[in-house]
Specification:
The protein is an alpha+beta fold and 74 residues long. It is 27% helix and 36% strand.
């Protein structure tokens, strides 16, 4: 499976269509997509999500509709 980088705006649009929201792992700076039902995650705003990706040099990658957040390629 080849993961291709996608823009944050494209990732947000796809996440919304899947009923996903941005989340942060409580007590950490880790971010991920969530349906909001996991007690270990807190739902954050899309602006906070964008900021976290930029500050941590993260990128959203996609393959066959599956998205993953990883370190940005150099």
């Amino acid at each position: 499976m080849v993961m291709e980088p996608i823009s944050v705006e494209s990732a947000i649009e796809k996440a919304k269509k899947k009923g996903l929201r941005p989340g942060r792992v409580k007590g950490t700076h880790g971010v991920q997509f969530t349906k909001g039902r996991n007690n270990r995650l807190e739902v954050i705003s899309w602006d906070e999500f964008r900021d976290a990706l930029a500050k941590r040099r993260l990128q959203v990658y996609e393959s066959s509709g599956w998205m993953k957040i990883m370190k940005r390629a150099r």
